Amino acid sequence: MIQRTIRLDFAHRVQFTRGAFRSGNSDLLDLMRAAEHRRAVSSVLVIADAGLLAAQPDLAPQIEGYFGEAADFQLAAPVVGVPGGERVKNEWPQVEKLWKAINDAGLDRHAYVIAIGGGAVLDLAGFAAATAHRGIRHLRMPTTTLSQGDGGVGVKNGVNFFGKKNWVGTFAVPFAVLNDFAFLDTLPERERRAGVIEAIKVAMIRDAAFFREMEADAAALGALESGILERVIQRSAELHVEHIATGGDPFEMGSARPLDFGHWVAHKLEQISGFRVGHGEAVAIGMAADLLYADRAGIAQPGVSDRALQLIEAVGFDLYAPELHAKAPGGRPAILQGLEEFREHLGGELTITLVPRIGEKIEVHEMDERHVRAALDALRDRVAAMAA
Q1: pLDDT mean values, one per 10 residues, the chain (388 residues)
Q2: What are the CA-CA distances from residue 140 to residues 118, 119, 153, 308 (Å)?
Q3: pTM of the complete model beyond 0.85
């Protein structure tokens, strides 16, 4: 047997800007100029959320003008639009469409694919870029609070298959991530709020001081004031990147996924609801369920769940959706199927992250169904009591 250890270093760059395609803003070009083995003139293909292009009709011409002023980069084709939202990840022809666009543009591994959009568009475009020519330089420009603070700064790409979220995908460190806060200004309120829950999530497992900061600013955060929202998104992105880079398992070869706190419920809830419940909303509910589970299982210190639930509600999230009590064939709650699907996705051993105290986490490898059911009932009763 011949055995050697292969070590690779990846630079994970996340930069913040405002008005990335405005004339005179060189942040995007400077990021691309950091590449090794760069050509004198490099080709660029831009893939963007079609809804964003329709809402901002000046965006595509602005992109064309921006690269028209750059002597060392050229657009290889007009901006490619793809539908936004989670449903696009259920449509395999969209993957083939992007592969064709990459092929027709004549891109090679030294070109750049820039993806502009929310998490679903970034996942789709990232998967296409990571699999074309075994990997083309991929630069993400997240346009939602969820993607700027969480998914868009990660190293995962994927599309849904077999009715399962992200069943097909890759781990590929993006060449760079450029978070343009100007994209957040025109988001609907629901989408502006969505990323706040991921900030609360990462604070609960990694940074008690950040959690306290959000508690102190809960009113402003709930009102989606730009200054505090941008601060929270930036700190959330920093903590997510810090975990990926220093957690020892960036490509998730093991079974622990602490950044998925609350996500076993969230992923299944999204599916059961036909994606009526958005990802941020589902994560809020999933975190609430796991917080109450930890209470009932004797894992959490007194008061932890109360503080967390109060903050989640204060910033504007609901803690319950009726789909939590939908029944699968046989009468068992359908949401419980999420545990088995989560175990399968992890690679064999179930690992669920729970929070014993703010800023700390533990991992458990089994969940008591009685406590899960009780937590779901408690969420339903809590919402009913507040509505009475």
Answers
A1: 92 95 95 87 96 96 96 95 92 96 96 96 96 96 95 92 88 95 93 95 96 97 95 95 84 70 94 92 97 96 96 97 93 90 77 95 93 96 86
A2: 10, 10, 8, 31
A3: yes
